[in-house]
Amino acid sequence: MHKSLREMRIEASELAESARSEEIDFLLAERLGLTPSQFQLKQDMELSDAEVKQARKDMKRLAKGDSPQYILGYAWFLGYRLRVAKGVLIPRFETEELVEWALAHLQDGDTVLDLGTGSGNITVALAKEAESKGIKDLHFYASDVKDTPLRISEENFLDYGLDVTTRKANVLLGLGKFDLIISNPPYIKPSEKNVMDKGVLANEPEEALFGGQDGLAFYRKFAEEVRDHLNSGGRFFMEFGFSEEDELKALFAEKLPDFKVEFRRDMAGKPRMLFGEWKK
C-alpha cells in the first residue's frame, strides 16, 4: 500500500478526474502539512498506509463535487486558518485586499461591524492584523442572516481569542451604530450561474452568493439604512462584482450624495472594492 507522493498524485487525478489539479494538490499538501513549495520538492517522499487511506477517502469526496475546504473543515485567509462547513461561504483571496484597505483606515477605539460575516474571516484577519499594528481599544461586531455562519464564526473568534458580539440580522436592520462597516455581500446575478464553478454552486450557500436579479439588492438596502448605523465621519468598505461598478456609482450618487465614495480595482485589474465615508 505504500506509495510515493508522486504516485499518489497520479492515482488521485484518476480517482477525482473531474476535479482541477490545483484542488487535488491543495488537499494532498494540506493533509501532509506541506507548503506549496515543499509539495513540489518532496514528490519522492513515501506516504504511510494511513496517509494513502486518507488521500483516497478525500479524492472520493472530491469526485462527488465536495469543495476541498469543506472536506478539510477549514480554509486559509490572509494567513489565518478558519473553520468552514457547508452553509458557510468559503473565504476568497480577493477579499484579503478589502481587509488590507480597511486596515489602513482603522483607528484606535473604533467600533467595527463585519456585515454578513460568514466564517468570520474578515473579523479575524482585521482584528489580528490591527493587534499586530498596535491599533487599540477596538470593538467588533459580526452579523449574518443565517444561524450556521454565526455558529462557525463564533468558533473561529474563540479559536483566536477574540471578543466579538454576534447578531442575527438582515442587512443592517436592528443593529446599532458603528465607526466602520465592512462587508463582502452577495452580488452575483442569477444569469451568471452558467459561468460559475459547479463546485461553488453545489456546495456554497445561495444567500451568500446571489444578490437578486441584477446583483444589487443588498446594496440598495444598505444605501437606504446606512445613515442610521454609522457614527459621524463613519466609513464603510464593500466588495462587489466586477461588472457592477457603473450601477453602484449611480446608486450611491443618488442615495448617498453626502458620502465620499471611492472605487478600487483588485490585483487582477478588475473593479472589485469600494470605500464610503460620511462627510457629516
UniProtKB/TrEMBL annotation:
S-adenosyl-L-methionine binds at G116, T117, G118, S119, G120, D144, N184. One of its GO terms (biological process) is methylation. One of its GO terms (molecular function) is nucleic acid binding. Its EC number is 2.1.1.297. PROSITE patterns: N6_MTASE. Keywords: Methyltransferase, S-adenosyl-L-methionine, Transferase. It catalyses: L-glutaminyl-[peptide chain release factor] + S-adenosyl-L-methionine = N(5)-methyl-L-glutaminyl-[peptide chain release factor] + S-adenosyl-L-homocysteine + H(+). It holds the Pfam family MTS. It is an enzyme of class 2 (transferase). Substrate binds at N184, P185, P186, Y187. Residues 105-193 form the Methyltransferase small domain. Residues 21-73 form the Release factor glutamine methyltransferase N-terminal domain. Belongs to the protein N5-glutamine methyltransferase family. PrmC subfamily. Methylates the class 1 translation termination release factors RF1/PrfA and RF2/PrfB on the glutamine residue of the universally conserved GGQ motif. This is Release factor glutamine methyltransferase. It comes from Lactobacillus delbrueckii. The lineage of its organism: Bacteria, Bacillati, Bacillota, Bacilli, Lactobacillales.
